[in-house]
């Protein structure tokens, strides 16, 4: 999202917001809100897994929509020309903030600020890093996270699994979507190690569907949500149109064809047709400014 700019929220102030009720907006309006909602959802997810009696310790995905650099302009074809290497420092700061928020224990250790997470590079060429966040309450509450893990890190994931044991392990902005991404000879191993064991803790994703700007979110308390951003009448695409169908299972991410069908129902006119209507009614944008 081009209107999102990076912000740093003091940790104690951030924790004070965690008990606040969910915003009515489907998508986070700022990076700070996205971080707050990610922390809250992660805490709820970890608690749910722990209380369920599952034999699998917390193994969780986070998909975080990184705010674009301040210098990004609408004319940029690629806002991240440096790829993962350019994204890494931004993602590192965000991940550390989320990890610290997860381990805060205001009941047993009120006002105690956790130490900064330690980190090490797992693969410089793949821009993958490991982060360990110690909990001020108990070593059993420590949290580990892999940043930008890809198919080439399958063996690393196995080794880290053995290291963290029953502690929480997070895959942050993973660079794969299915077992087949790991190749023919490793897909079965990836299926058993990752896809059969991990679940979503938080997600904020964006895709294009039928030419529309679609945003998807996952939070533990509400499951998956999807909306289309349309023109609010002032040329700003920030009006949310919910496209979730009441019959969909919110534990499952909506697929493309389902969303396309729903968009056709709620927005029969495609984007280009709506823009043509705006031109006929209001004139071109440069003409509106003159008037």
From TrEMBL:
Keyword Repeat: no
Residues annotated as domain DUF1995: 58-229
Cell inner membrane is among the record's keywords: no
Name under which the protein is recorded: DUF1995 domain-containing protein
Record's keyword terms, sorted: Signal
Stretch forming the signal peptide: 1-25
TM segment ranges: none
Species, as recorded: Cyclotella cryptica
């Amino acid at each position: 999202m081009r209107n999102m700019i990076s912000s740093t929220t003091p940790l104690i102030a951030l924790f004070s917001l965690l008990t606040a009720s969910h915003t009515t907006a489907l998508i986070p309006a700022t990076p700070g809100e996205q971080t707050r909602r990610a922390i809250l959802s992660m805490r709820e997810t970890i608690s749910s897994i722990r209380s369920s009696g599952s034999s699998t310790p917390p193994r969780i995905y986070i998909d975080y929509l990184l705010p674009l650099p301040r210098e990004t302009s609408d004319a940029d074809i690629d806002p991240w020309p440096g790829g993962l290497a350019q994204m890494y420092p931004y993602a590192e700061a965000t991940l550390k903030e989320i990890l610290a928020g997860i381990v805060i224990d205001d009941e047993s250790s009120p006002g105690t600020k956790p130490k900064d997470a330690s980190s090490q590079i797992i693969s410089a060429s793949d821009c993958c890093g490991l982060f360990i966040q110690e909990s001020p309450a108990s070593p059993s509450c420590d949290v580990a996270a892999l940043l930008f893990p890809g198919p080439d890190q399958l063996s690393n994931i196995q080794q880290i699994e053995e290291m963290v044991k029953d502690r929480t392990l997070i895959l942050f902005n993973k660079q794969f979507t299915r077992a087949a991404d790991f190749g023919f000879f490793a897909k079965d191993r990836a299926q058993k190690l990752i896809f059969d064991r991990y679940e979503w803790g938080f997600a904020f994703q964006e895709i294009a569907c039928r030419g529309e700007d679609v945003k998807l979110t996952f939070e533990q308390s509400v499951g998956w949500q999807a909306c289309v951003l349309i023109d609010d009448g002032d040329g700003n695409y920030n009006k949310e149109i919910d496209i979730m169908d009441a019959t969909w299972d919110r534990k499952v991410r909506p697929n493309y064809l389902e969303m396309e069908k729903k968009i056709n129902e709620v927005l029969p006119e495609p984007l280009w047709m709506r823009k043509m209507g705006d031109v006929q009614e209001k004139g071109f944008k440069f003409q509106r400014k003159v008037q």
